[in-house]
Write a structure and sequence with these properties.
The complex is a heterodimer of chains A (145) and B (155). Chain A is an alpha+beta fold. Helix content of chain A is 33%, strand content 26%. The longest helix of chain A has 22 residues. Classes of the chains: A alpha+beta (145), B alpha/beta (155).
């Protein structure tokens, strides 16, 4: 991990569904300071959208709460953290399974999409203490493979 | 528990979908990125519907996510509840973005139509949208067509 970010943004907003679009757009425009391709920008948008939607739907169960999004630009990567102070996740391993959902009519794909579109994903959560979703996108895709 | 440790759940290196992106060398500048999302992404999805016999053509314009999917759902479900419509053609050519909430809304309408012994055909998929739909597995159950006209011909 690189030491100091070259640039950072921090956003805080109420857990309203209309802010999901705002958050992904803001992060995408911020990310465009780096040499990401259009495809990569699209991937970042999906990942942010999923993480913020999860905060709204699961973290706060569609009640009022504050969602925090931090994005940091490093030399070769973008790190994004989406935080809620809601109910938390009791079983993170289950939550990561494709198709796993605690709600009817949801697909259980949010975290699966983040996993596919970002290079790193880690969840930090406990019941009652909210959830932090950490995601990293490297500038050069596939260079490690 | 509090401290974040990347160890057990931090998955890296098995990214199946990221690999293809570097053939497109186009890099986005800040101004260009802002131009890509002129209304800030939070705008309402525009939903236009047109009845052709028992078929409902639904043209969407805008981004399909948690917020806008609700609007889409209400309009389509209202039409289906009228009892005059059995098949759906979803025209997505003006939809540049979809996430799992949007996919869930499309899948939900697919199920409704399926329950009416009808069909759902999607058309106008942009690459980014197609990729998300493929990843969700819904393209293996839903029909796709190259154009609205061809979609209607399938019904």
């Amino acid at each position: 991990v690189e030491k100091e970010p070259r640039n950072t943004i921090e956003l805080e907003f109420p857990s309203l569904p209309e802010n999901v679009g705002f958050a992904r757009t803001a992060v995408a425009i911020f990310a465009a300071q780096m040499d990401f391709t259009l495809d990569q920008i699209d991937e970042i948008k999906v990942a942010v959208s999923e993480a913020v939607s999860n905060a709204v739907i699961h973290g706060y169960e569609e009640k009022y709460g504050v969602v925090r999004v931090e994005a940091k630009l490093y030399e070769n990567s973008l790190a994004i953290t989406v935080v809620d102070y809601g109910v938390g996740i009791s079983d993170i391993e289950c939550a990561m399974q494709p198709g796993y959902t605690t709600m009817e009519n949801r697909m259980g794909l949010g975290l699966v999409f983040i996993k596919e579109y970002m290079d790193e994903l880690a969840l930090d959560s406990a019941p009652g203490s909210g959830t932090r979703v950490h995601m990293i996108k490297h500038l050069k895709q596939g260079s490690e493979q | 528990v509090g401290a974040f440790s990347g160890a057990p759940l931090c998955s890296t290196g098995t990214n199946n979908f990221g690999g293809g992106s570097f053939e497109k060398k186009k890099v986005v500048g800040v101004a260009e990125a802002a131009a890509l999302f002129p209304l800030g992404g939070g705008r309402r999805l525009n939903v236009q519907t047109k009845r052709v016999g028992a078929n409902l053509v639904v043209r969407l314009s805008g981004e399909l996510d948690l917020h806008t999917a609700e609007h889409f759902r209400q309009i389509v479900d209202g039409e289906l509840a009228s009892g005059k419509v059995r098949n759906l053609v979803l025209v997505l050519k003006d939809v540049p973005f979809i996430d799992s909430s949007g996919v869930g809304a499309i899948l939900g309408r697919y199920r409704l139509v399926h329950g009416l012994q009808g069909k759902l055909v999607v058309t106008g998929l942009r690459p980014a949208v197609k990729r998300v739909l493929e990843m969700s597995g819904v393209l293996s159950i839903m029909e796709t067509a190259d154009s609205e006209r061809r979609a209607l011909a399938r019904l």
